[in-house]
Specification:
Blueprint (H helix, E strand, L loop, with lengths): L2 E5 L2 H10 L6 E4 L4 H10 L6 E6 L5 E2 L3 H6 L4 E5 L15 E5 L14 E4 L12 E5 L12 H9 L2 H18 L13 E5 L3 H12 L17 H4 E5 L10 H11 L2
Parallel strand pairs: 2-3, 2-5, 5-6, 6-7
Antiparallel strand pairs: 1-8, 3-4, 7-8, 9-10
Length: 258
């Protein structure tokens, strides 16, 4: 049996999941949006443990041995499908898995293990809010529900054309640079790559060419993952590239010295 919920935002879905106490002692990735980190640490049960597993340069998880997780009494694992890419997870016994799939449009047909899956509509559609939650267990109700009228308006437009444009832009960037990872997501919003001197490249794009890239996650909690200093995300939507990807590719190549 699965339980389905529609909430206002992805962060509200995460609040709902943690408040439902689906797990107590958590294993989190060491590459996280600071907001997600803060939600976990603000809402975890008193005395609960939180530890971290490493995320490699290709966004692949490096899972601790079962004995390590057992010694920590881990009963919850948080998995991030970075930029729409899914990785196999390690099956720890007696553990609930929470899948942060904010970049995914498709909910799971069936969760094969105790767990919760949630996404974010605004990562995929031209709507300001919306998050779907699918769970193998009942959750407490969220404080703010999603306005379904927004989704009806978005789907009434030819959004499939925008998805196709994003995939084509992503593929053009992938042909020119090294993406992370080396595969194309089904519904891309960003082209992600790791480069040295990222902050300098972003600053020069803004100063010399008036091109503003999104501000990357900052390692404000001193997690230590080197991707915090190297990850650069280039939007692939038609609003950022109204005339296609050629100009952005040329500017990136120039400022990266390629």
């Amino acid at each position: 049996m699965t339980f389905t919920y529609l909430n206002g935002l992805g962060r509200e879905s995460l609040h709902q999941i943690i408040h439902s106490r689906v797990a107590t002692n958590w294993l989190l990735p060491d590459l996280l949006c600071p907001l997600v980190y803060d939600i976990f640490f603000d809402m975890k049960a008193p005395g609960a443990k939180v530890d971290f597993y490493k995320i490699g340069d290709g966004f692949e998880p490096e899972w601790p041995e079962e004995r390590y997780a057992g010694d920590l009494c881990i009963d919850g694992v948080f998995i991030v499908n970075y930029f729409g890419h899914e990785w196999p997870h390690k099956d720890y016994p007696g553990v609930t898995y929470v899948h942060d799939a904010v970049w995914s449009r498709r909910s799971p047909v069936g969760l094969s293990h105790p767990g919760v899956w949630f996404n974010s509509f605004r990562k995929l559609l031209p709507v300001p809010e919306g998050s779907l939650v699918v769970s193998t267990m009942p959750l407490v109700e969220s404080t703010r529900r999603f306005n379904a009228h927004l989704l009806v308006i978005a789907l009434a437009n030819d959004w499939h054309r925008e998805w196709q444009s994003r995939r084509e832009n992503w593929a053009a960037l992938a042909a020119a640079f090294d993406p992370i990872p080396m595969m194309g997501p089904e519904y891309p919003k960003f082209f992600a790559m790791a480069i040295d001197g990222r902050d300098e490249v972003i600053a020069k794009l803004k100063k010399d060419h008036d091109v503003s890239l999104p501000r990357p996650w900052r390692d404000v909690h001193r997690m230590g993952n080197p991707l915090y200093d190297r990850l650069m995300c280039v939007p692939v939507d038609s609003q950022f590239m109204p005339d296609g990807p050629r100009r952005i590719i040329d500017l990136l190549a120039k400022e990266m010295g390629k």
